[in-house]
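Re: that chain you flagged

S.,

Sorry for the slow reply, it's been a week of failed gels. I finally had a moment to sit down with the sequence you sent. For the record, here it is as I used it:
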Amino acid sequence: MKRTYLFSAALLPALLLVGCNDPFSTKNFPDFSDVQFTVTSSNETSTGAYINISHDGTSHDTYCGFITTDCTTGIDAIVNQKIKELNDNKVDLYTEVKSGTARTAVLTGLQSGTNYRYVVFGLNTDGTTYGKSGECQFSTLKGAPELSINLVGNPTESTAMVSVTTTGDETDKWYCFVTTDVETSLATLCKNTLAGTANLNSKLQDGDLTLEFSSLASNTAYRAVVTGVKDGTVYGTPVAVEFRTTRRVFDVVKNPNWTIVDKGKGNLTDSEGNVETYDHIIECTAATNEDMYFIMVMDEAGMEYYNWDLVSFFSDACDYMTGLLKQFNAQYGANLTWYDISYTTSAKEGYTFDEDGNYYAYAIGVLPDGSPSGKYAVTDPIVVSVPMSDEFKAWIGKWTIGSGSTTYSINIKRNETEKSYAITGWQSEAVGDTPCYALFNAEDGSMSFAGSKIADSVTLTDGSGNQINCALWFSGIDTDSYVYTMNSVYEIAKSTFSNSDKTKASVTGNTVSRNDGSTATFATMGFIATANSGDGVYGFTETPTFPLTMTKSASSASASSFSVANPNFGKSVLLWGNTGMTEISSKIIR
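Prediction finished late last night. Pasting the C-alpha cells below so you have them in one place:
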C-alpha cells in the first residue's frame, strides 16, 4: 500500500528552518491513490444523523472522520485544514482515529434545518495519510424553533408589553398569552390553554413581534407565555416571563356612609354557632350596600411605621388579605374571591389584644380585584391595658434561645391571659410566623413549652419540589430519637428564670412515662410534619439540644402586626417553600 507522509511533528521544525511558510503546501499533498473511502448518511433528524463509513482496505487500517458546515471547499483542501487543526492542537491521534472496514457514526447535537458535510480520510497514528478521501452531504430536518420572550419597558397597572423572538420562519407559528397562573408547569398550562382557545389558528403569529396586553388587573402577578403551535397542539419548548402590574393609583377619602366604632367587651357567634367572648367588638355601620370593605386593626407603632401614610398602609393591607385568600384557597381547595371575604353591609368583628397600647380599627375599601378603592373609616384610638400579673407578663417579649451555635430569636406573646403563650420565631426560616405554644405555671412562675398539634392539614414542599399534605405538630424528641405527636397537650421542656431581674432563663427537657412503663427524657423540640397519606415523617431545620439558655432582648416590645378576626382566616396555617423539609426517622410515638 502506498503511504504518503503529509505531516510529522519531527519534520515540522526542519521545514520551518528552510523557510517553508506552509508545511501543507501543494508539493506535500498526499497521493490519494489506494484505499477508497465511501460515506453515506441516513436516519436524519432535526438534531442528528447516522453516518455510514466503509472502505476497501483492511480492518487494521485507521482513518479520521469529521463534520463541518463548509459544503463548498474542495475535499483535498478541507482535509488539509483538518490535519493542520490536529497538528496545531497537538491532538493524540490514538484518540482520534477509528479502524475497521465498516462503521456507523451516530451524530447528535446538530442544528435543525442545517446543511452538513461529513468527510473521512485515511490517517495513521504516526501522522501519515493514505487512500482516497470520501464524503457525503446531508441536511438535518427542520425542528421546532427556539422561542424567547422578554418584557419591553415596565408594566403599568393595566398593561404590559413583551417582545417575542424566534429562530423559525414564516411557517413556524406561535401563540402568546398572559395568565395569573404562575405555578402550573408551562407544558401543562400551554396544553390546557390551547385546548380552550376558540379560533386558535386566527390568533397564531410568526417571526419576531412586540405585543401589548391590556385590561390587566392592578398589582397582580402574571406570566406572559409563548409556545410553538403545530396542528393545534404545543410544538417545541414553551418559554415565559413573569411580571407584576403596578398598584392602582388612588386617593384616600373618608366614606361618609361608613361609621366604625369600638363597642367594648361582648360576644359574637361564629359560622358554626360557637359563642366567643372578645374584649373589643368592632362594629362598622354601612348606610348603603354598594362599597366593599374589610376591617383591619393596626396598633399605633404600626401606623408610625407607615408614617401614617394611608396609601401605603391600605395597599399593604389589601396585599396581606389577598395573600390569606390565596393561602386559604390552596389549603382547602376552595375558590373564594373578594366578594366572599369582604362586607358591603354593616358588620361586627371581635378582637382581644395581647399588648398594651393604642389601636385603630379601619374599614378599608376594596375593589373586586383586591386593590384599594381609597375609601375608609377609622375608629377613635382604642386604648388597651391588658390586665396581667407581673409573673405572667415577665415572659412576654423578645428572647434569644438556644444552645451552642444553634439559636433562634423568638417573640413570646400572650395567648390566654395567665394560662398560655404563643411563640413565633422558632425555626422561622422554615415555618415563618407559625406559632408554637407554652403554658404558664402560676405556682412557681415558670413556663413550659407545649407539645401539640398545630394544624390538621398543611401543604408542604420537600427538597425535591414535591407537595405533600401533612399534619403539623410541635413535638418533643427524646434521647432515642423518638418523636412524640400526641393529640393531647403535653409539656416538653420547662423554663425557669436564672436571675433576679428575670432577663435570663434556663430550659431543661422533661422526663415522661411511656405506655410500656419506661421513661424518656426529651433532648430537643421542633416542628414535625407527618404525611396524611403514607407514613412519612418530616423535620425542617436543626434544633438545639437541652439545656437551652434564654436571654431577653433589651428592647422586648413585641413586633407590630396585623390583627385579623375574620373566622375564615387567621386560624388557617399554610407553609410555603419549605426547601429545608427532609424525611427523618419514622420512630414516632402518638
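What I noticed first: The helical segments are 12-17, 75-88, 186-195, 300-305, 310-332, 338-341, 390-393, 428-431.

Talk soon,
D.
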